């Protein structure tokens, strides 16, 4: 499903946060909102989920205008928010349990294996590493059966090695998810490594300043580290130095 955002603006009494934010995301695309801290990245996700009410502009999924909460979106925050007293299996099925939906145990077990969690279905969160906890939280988000996944710096609290491992894992499995993904991050390397497109959010109030398209299908750490020129361009764009050499 295609997501279209047009002229989205948000203000508080003492401050304008967003002004005329417009972009679209195609079905199955992985798009990253990249910006410095406080640039309004997470605010856009809050507007999409309906946590924050939009003031002006439109949000459409295909031809349906979204007002408030929508089942088209599933949101994953930076904190895993796992229920410590529940097993991994019960945590990933939380959406189905809350909505009294039947649980296909065989399907869930297959997904646990895909997410590298085979054998952990009866474990409790305090028995897992930080990376494993994030996999559980991500699978819980995927099993919400939404069309569009909203990932709000999901690896931000992890150490650098675990974060890199999680990026490798997400890059490997994203094609199997059949989902549209919007990632919020301030990590340039993460954005380059994972994205089909990068949208630079900047200015006060914030708006989309520039887009970067990445067409390579096969990526590696060596490919990432060889993209110094692109990284430099994005860095200067984030700093507002658009004319830098």
Automatic annotation (TrEMBL):
Matches recorded under SMART domains: AAA
SUPFAM superfamilies according to UniProt: P-loop containing nucleoside triphosphate hydrolases
Top-rank taxon: Bacteria
Pfam annotation, one family: ABC_tran
Keywords, comma-separated and alphabetical: ATP-binding, Nucleotide-binding, Transport
One MF term in the entry's GO annotations: ATP hydrolysis activity
Keyword Glycoprotein: no
InterPro entries per UniProt: AAA+_ATPase, ABC_transporter-like_ATP-bd, ABC_transporter-like_CS, ABC_transporter_ATP-bind, P-loop_NTPase
Domain ABC transporter positions: 3-228
UniProt-recorded name of the protein: ABC-type nitrate/sulfonate/bicarbonate transport system, ATPase component
Organism of origin: Isobaculum melis
